[in-house]
Design brief:
heterodimer; A: 393 residues; alpha+beta; 19% helix; B: 263 residues; alpha/beta; 6-stranded mixed β-sheet; two-stranded antiparallel sheet; globular; binds guanosine-5'-triphosphate; binds magnesium ion
């Protein structure tokens, strides 16, 4: 997308929403009329004005002084635009946190300098890691409450380093920012109250260090069969090219059956194409020996002959449990495929935890373990509802 | 291909994916069409997703209070694009038109249509950047039997995975959620999509958003071409829907309306 998605994570009340409010305000990313409207509403309802109200727009959120549902705000930088994703820090609202965090290109962890590491500081970091978010910065917030003292900052980051390393983020490669989201110190404007700090502001970090999302164009071909549409007397397979490239005449494999076939036509709305690549949603015709598409349907994957995409009946990796399953019969979803299976491990599940898992499927499924593509990412469903999110290893 | 082109293509491709998911997951979807820029853009995206065909009917919630230009535009598009148009009659008492009644009357009319036609998915062209409440939406958002939106219990949407909606009366689908107003205009220009002439300035005023003619006010503008609209939006500090009475932050009107099933 044009805007690079960055999620703000961390324990409740540590200042995620306030930091977003401060960022969009000091960069003039928010329209003046919005700010005035909010100030008026706060006044008429007898509430204190909070920067967080720029993103906490529900009445209930303002009354309870917490984010209850994930939201996004656009941040305008000098050369790029970003989508700042706010998520709730409350433990009960973790499903909403996952919705916001999935797909983010980078994360900013917000930690209250007074409170230090709390339950959701750790949990949100684990989830960010699990979701494959590699770029991370840590904002040590509310420095105004400790008179902007360096010792307080150092105390917190020392403990943070341990936690980060344990979760798999290399702490020596991570930047820590002493800030006050409320006062605006080191957010967009450099603070004149912390001479001891020579590093970047949050905005400089966002603009200079967050990398653009990488293209999947040079990864192995993955075409996800999403649906089949009739077209005159034939049928075409439609779906997105998740990664790699595809051209007319190319020999490919249909997974999970491993049937070989040839791409006969590629088309979009404008007509026939000679080739297509990652990111495009297209329609294709294939030719194979029995000349029909019977058996090819939603959930199948088309890949190149030499691809690392493989088919497995037993799948394992790591997942975060939104809640514990009601029994061990679950559905695993990967790409557009949805297959029933028996959860073998773990035996004991506590909601809110990240664990490894192993599931035995009723039939084979195309997977691309440890990849950044959708075939490396899964959800588990219990009676139609998503109860776990994770990866394949 | 220019950089701009590439960004618009990404937006478009994501919307096409969601429209195709809608077709794959639901039996009987319909599209809400107000003849405004966003929902007309949505019809066009459907044509792109389904190789020129429009597999879903389009619903116009019609009160007779839309601008004459809007009705003319409707007839033109229906004819040119072969739209299967369903008109939902919106009841109203003429002397009591306000932004709020506009929203509530339309929600009532929609309820009736959904019962009559048994639609299980409704494609609605809202965008996150329109309003703080709309920024809280999902791509697929279930509504209960009374049409209520329970924002506290929104199911997770991770990567492209969504839950089934067994208890929902219908699901609202929002394929344009990630677009901005500026994106929509740049896309309309890029793809040469027809649009309602009310958006262009006449005598120093133009409409940025269209609702009932009684409660929709034009903004000051000299943007009488699409290029000028795009320029104007790049610098504007005024909210898109500032001309719509029902959208004010005041008293959380938008939140209440959405909870009651308004679009
Ligand atoms: N003094 C001071 N207060 C702050 C600062 N940042 C945030 N706060 C206050 O801390 C409280 C909580 O801030 P929020 O931004 O709502 O916290 P949050 O992390 O979004 O909390 P949840 O949404 O519940 O997860 C608010 O009253 C803020 O005004 C800061 O830098 N200094
Ligand atoms: Mg918050």
């Amino acid at each position: 997308m044009r805007e690079i998605p960055i999620v703000l994570i961390g324990h409740k009340d540590h200042g995620k929403s306030t930091l977003i409010g401060r960022l969009i305000l000091d960069t003039k990313s928010v329209q003046e009329t919005r700010l005035k409207e909010i100030q008026e509403v706060d006044k008429s309802s007898g509430q204190k004005f909070e920067l967080a109200h720029l993103v906490d727009t529900f009445k209930e959120e303002r009354e309870r002084e917490m984010t209850m549902d994930t939201t996004r705000a656009i941040l305008k930088g000098k050369k790029r635009k970003y989508q700042l994703i706010d998520v709730p820090g409350h433990k009960e609202l973790i499903a909403s946190m996952l919705t916001g965090a999935a797909g983010a290109q980078g994360a900013l962890l917000v930690v209250d300098v007074n409170e230090g590491i709390k339950e959701q500081t750790r949990q949100h970091l684990e989830i960010a890691k699990l979701l494959g978010i590699e770029q991370l910065g840590v904002a040590v917030n509310k420095m105004d409450k400790v008179d902007y003292q360096q010792e307080e900052f150092e105390k917190v980051i020392q403990k943070l380093r341990e936690v980060l390393n344990k979760i798999g983020y290399l702490s020596e490669r991570i930047d820590f920012f002493p800030i006050s989201a409320w006062e605006g110190d080191n957010v967009v404007k450099r603070s004149n109250k912390m001479d001891w700090y020579k590093g970047k502001t949050i905005m400089e970090f966002i603009e200079e260090d967050i990398k653009e999302p990488e293209s999947f164009r040079d990864l192995p071909l993955i075409f996800l069969v999403q649906d089949k549409y009739p077209n005159e007397d034939k049928e075409i397979l439609v779906g997105p090219i998740e990664s790699g490239r595809l051209r007319v005449g190319q020999k490919v494999l249909i997974l999970p059956d491993k049937r070989e076939c040839e791409i006969k036509t590629i088309r979009d709305f404008t007509g026939e194409l000679l080739e297509a690549e990652a990111g495009q949603n297209i329609g294709i015709e294939i030719s194979q020996e029995d000349k029909t598409l019977s058996g090819v349907s939603r959930g199948n994957v088309i890949t190149s002959l030499d691809s690392q995409v493989r088919t497995d009946q037993e799948v394992s990796g790591e997942v975060f449990w939104i809640r514990a399953p009601s029994d061990s019969n679950l559905v695993l979803e990967c790409g557009t495929a949805s297959v029933e299976g028996q959860l073998m491990e773990p035996k004991m599940i506590t909601e809110g935890q990240t664990t490894s898992y192993r599931i035995l499927l009723s039939k084979k499924m195309a997977v691309f373990p440890r990849s950044r593509t959708i075939l490396g990412k899964i959800v588990l469903k219990d009676k139609g509802k998503i109860i776990a999110v994770g990866n394949i290893q | 291909m220019s950089i701009m082109d590439f960004h618009l293509q990404q937006l478009e491709q994501k919307s096409i994916y969601i429209l195709r998911e809608t077709k794959a997951r639901f039996k009987n979807p319909a599209i809400l069409w107000s003849m405004g820029k966003d929902s007309t853009c949505m019809l066009y995206l459907c044509k792109r997703a389904f190789f020129g065909k429009l597999p879903f009917p389009a619903i116009h919630l019609d009160s007779g209070h839309d601008f004459p230009e809007t009705y003319q535009f409707r007839e033109k598009i229906v004819k040119e694009w072969g739209v299967n148009l369903i008109i939902g009659k919106v009841k109203h008492e003429t002397d009591k038109i306000s932004g709020t009644t506009e929203g509530l009357n339309k929600a009532e009319a929609l309820k009736k249509l959904l019962e009559d036609y048994k639609f299980d998915a409704l494609i609605v062209s809202i965008r996150r950047d329109e309003h703080g409440i709309r920024a809280k939406e999902r791509y697929f958002s279930p509504r209960d039997k009374d049409f209520r939106w329970n924002f506290e219990k929104q199911p997770p949407e991770v990567f492209n995975y969504i839950s089934e909606f067994k208890e929902a009366s219908h699901v609202r689908v929002h394929p344009l959620l990630h677009w901005t107003e500026l994106d929509v205009w740049m896309y309309i220009k890029e793809r040469n999509i027809p649009f309602n002439p009310l958006y262009l300035a006449k005598n120093g005023k133009r409409y940025r958003s269209l609702g009932y003619k009684e409660v929709t006010h034009p903004i000051k503008s000299d943007a009488d071409t699409i290029d000028k609209i795009i320029e104007e939006l790049k610098t504007s500090q005024i909210g898109e829907r500032s001309g719509r009475e029902l959208d004010k932050e005041k008293e959380y009107v938008m939140q209440r309306l959405r909870e009651l099933g308004y679009m």
